[in-house]
Write a structure and sequence with these properties.
single chain; mainly alpha; two-stranded antiparallel sheet; 63% helix; elongated
Length: 121
């Protein structure tokens, strides 16, 4: 008899069809003292977007656009402030932070879009 960790190892090794994993598998069913063996219909769980994820997906495009516009502004400020080193350093720091945040937003958008696509198929 194994524990939950053994179960996770077993599940991890099993192939998943179409990115979905059945939540019910072959089991024994007891009914009125009699044990029946057979397959229980496999229920397929599709990932669904939560309300907050759906709202986030609706607004994430605007946030990405704002970040890209700010990056463009920063690039022009960096190009124009070659003699003011303190301002240049501030622009460079903000640019670096904004690029990382933009990358995170793009990854989040990709994740939410894929999750939404799977829930509709």
């Amino acid at each position: 008899m194994g524990n939950y960790s053994d179960y996770l190892e077993q599940v991890k090794d099993e192939p998943i069809a179409n990115g979905r994993q059945p939540s019910v598998v072959d089991t024994s069913v007891e009914s009125a003292g009699k044990t029946k063996r057979g397959k229980v219909k496999a229920e397929v769980r599709r990932p669904k977007l939560t309300f907050n994820e759906r709202r986030e997906l609706e607004t994430i495009d605007d946030e990405i656009d704002k970040m890209e516009r700010r990056l463009t502004e920063l690039e022009s400020l960096i190009a124009n402030s070659t003699s003011d080193y303190t301002a240049l350093q501030e622009y460079m720091d903000e640019n670096e932070i904004l690029e990382l945040e933009l990358l995170e937003k793009l990854e989040r958008q990709e994740y939410l879009t894929e999750k939404d696509r799977l829930s509709k198929s």
